[in-house]
Amino acid sequence: xxxxxxxxxxxxxxxxxxxxxxxxxxxxxxxxxxxxxxxxxxxxxxxxxxxxxxxxxxxxxxxxxxxxxxxxxxxxxxxxxxxxxxxxxxxxxxxxxxxxxxxxxxxxxxxxxxxxxxxxxxxxxxxxxxxxxxxxxxxxxxxxxxxxxxxxxxxxxxxxxxxxxxxxxxxxxxxxxxxxxxxxxxxxxxxxxxxxxxxxxxxxxxxxxxxxxxxxxxxxxxxxxxxxxxxxxxxxxxxxxxxxxxxxxxxxxxxxxxxxxxxxxxxxxxxxxxxxxxxxxxxxxxxxxxxxxxxxxxxxxxxxxxxxxxxxxxxxxxxxxxxxxxxxxxxxxxxxxxxxxxxxxxxxxxxxxxxxxxxxxxxxxxxxxxxxxxxxxxxxxxxxxxxxxxxxxxxxxxxxxxxxxxxxxxxxxxxxxxxxxxxxxxxxxxxxxxxxxxxxxxxxxxxxxxxxx
Length: 453
Prior knowledge:
CATH architecture of the domain at 369-453: Alpha Horseshoe
Largest sheet: none
Distance between the termini: 130 Å
Mean pLDDT: 92
Shape: elongated
Number of strands: 0
CATH class of the domain at 369-453: Mainly Alpha
Radius of gyration: 34 Å
């Protein structure tokens, strides 16, 4: 009887195990079918039921994670992928998909860890090496990204996206010739890869390779015929290359296709404004084109800056000041709007507004290559405003930026004297006369305070 009872219990357990396995497979199949029909809630229910029957099922957790990802619930997807990877450490797919989910969540560190683990499991996948490179690039690890990209292109030298990302990384590392080569390889492998062509055109522009830039822009316009911005880009490239008349023709053709497009009027205004020094009819045409778009509430800072420049060139400083003041408060702000606003305000004798505009420009452009001349101008405006301490401060900045300019040292010493800083002026004059003992302005200042014999 004991043997019979044990046999009966064993048979019952075997039956229950078989029934559980059958139900598990049925739930997986039901989840797969629901997923095919885009019934993600039904799929989640089915896969969750399969997990309840088999908590140790890597496949059920993997498919549940993929379903959550399809629904856009990336956090839950990452959790399920992590569980699946833990249940089968030798499985590649859950680790790679965990990396995808973490990358989508912009958690680049965990994404890198997941992709590295995937590469350790199988180092023959160019796709995963590329994903690892992309995550490293997003994490700011340019050298590590380039190493992974090197592995990706060794495994698959036809991967255009890898060469495109390689070009971006190399450009950021200022390895410009190598960046050009990588981007050229990318577009040769995938001629319709628009981002790579855009990056290559921009790089050609920075290098002054006008004809190469134009060729890329023309190809982009052919690939993306629906966007008039492509035609505008070609027109502006012609203008930069010195083909102003051709630029006007290109932009005129674009205007016929999209007569209400502000971008085209802005580009036309810019081209006509650049032609104004050599063509008498250019400035009125620039004003006509720019006035059309600058008067609307949606006018950008760039458009208002161009319009203000045209008004200044036309001698209408009052209207230019109004337009340029608006340009300085429209976001995103064109930094140059502050420089032109300073010009207009000074012409209107609004000296404090001019000075503040020049200071604001410095806040927006901290690496200003023209710091010495801008600081000198601020100092001069400060003197005109009877603000000698500020003038001395800004002349000091100008002299620091241009240490061999003895005229600046003389202006600095004069401002220091006006501010009542006799000792500071003495140090400045001595410093200048050590460089040029015969400098007349410095000698004049020295006699004023009787420090030079």
